[in-house]
Amino acid sequence: MDKYKNDYLTFYGENNISPVRQDINNFEQHCLRRKNLYRQLGIPVLALRNSEVLEVGAGSGYNTLTYFFLGGGVKNVDIVEPNPTGRIEINRLFEKYKITKDKYNCISSTIEEFATNKTYDFVIAEGFIPGLSNPKEILGILEKYTHKDSIIIITCVDEIGLYVERMKRLVAQYITKDIKELKLKVEKLLVIFKPQLEKLGASRKPEDWILDQLFNPSLLVRNDFTMKDELNFIMINLKY
Ligand SMILES: C[S@@+](CC[C@H](N)C(=O)[O-])C[C@H]1O[C@@H](n2cnc3c(N)ncnc32)[C@H](O)[C@@H]1O
Questions:
Q1: 130 lines ligand 1 (CB under 6 A)
Q2: How far is the CA of 218 from the centre of ligand 1 (A)?
């Protein structure tokens, strides 16, 4: 797996974290958030019913969990997640919500090393491609697991969208420059950012947001993998 190490895997591995946990105590609201997102993407949740899903980089499985409930629920999800902390948290979360093992496979692999002859109705990779140095290669790999009517769901970002986040990062790094331990840096920054995140109604745990947005080096990758880039790549390379 070392050959395919990237900034996410190094940072998460060194700190034994999967900083994408969400507060889903109000589970109905969590599902509604996801339903609204899919509606914006033009995907009615009914399309999920009985579907076969491949999710790449599911983190701790908080978004994945909703697939079992939305639109009547998916048939099965294959989850490719190389981070051991993420896999532990996925299994723990799914057990809590009584998702049985026949409904999902949690595969310890990077997407580059994953191999199957299976194709899926949905191929989902949220919040990870723009932070990689090889986004086009990854998109090409995802396409291998689709069939004629499949839907690929990916995240894209551009420099303008990232600008404010990067400015917050600059401030955070400056404020904590004399603190050695990451845990103590996070504690200091919680005082500033927790009230702001609460005001925004963010579901992600503030300490995880701080770790991922303000310290994860993958946010500094400059790929400019914008929506335009992704669409061009899909239309030209994948011949849609
Ligand atoms: C920022 S997290 C996003 C988690 C989740 N999709 C979400 O949106 O909450 C990025 C995820 O991608 C995973 N990842 C990083 N490199 C990967 C690779 N080469 N193949 C598969 N997953 C990878 C990480 O372990 C992590 O779970």
A1: no
A2: 11
| Residues 102 and 178 reside in one and the same domain | no
List the chain pLDDT tens, one digit each, 240 residues. 677 789 999 999 999 999 999 999 999 999 999 999 999 999 999 999 999 999 999 999 999 999 999 999 999 999 999 999 999 999 999 999 999 999 999 999 999 999 999 999 999 999 988 888 888 889 999 999 999 999 999 988 877 888 888 899 999 999 999 999 999 999 999 999 999 999 998 999 999 999 999 999 988 776 667 777 777 777 666 555
- Domain containing residue 188: 159-218
Please identify, by atom number, the ligand 1 atom nearest to the C-alpha of residue 86.
Answer: 27
Q: For residues 131 and 230, state if they share a domain.
A: yes
Q: Is the CB of 83 under 6 A from ligand 1?
A: yes
**What is the Å distance from ligand 1's center to 151 Cα?**
19
Same domain membership, residue 149 and residue 214: no
The CATH number linked to 63 is 3.40.50.150
Answer yes or no: is the C-beta of 110 below 6 A from any ligand 1 atom. Answer: yes
Query: Does the reported pTM lie above 0.70?
Result: yes
Number of structural domains (the chain) is 2
Whether 121 and 151 have beta carbons less than 8 Å apart is answered as: yes
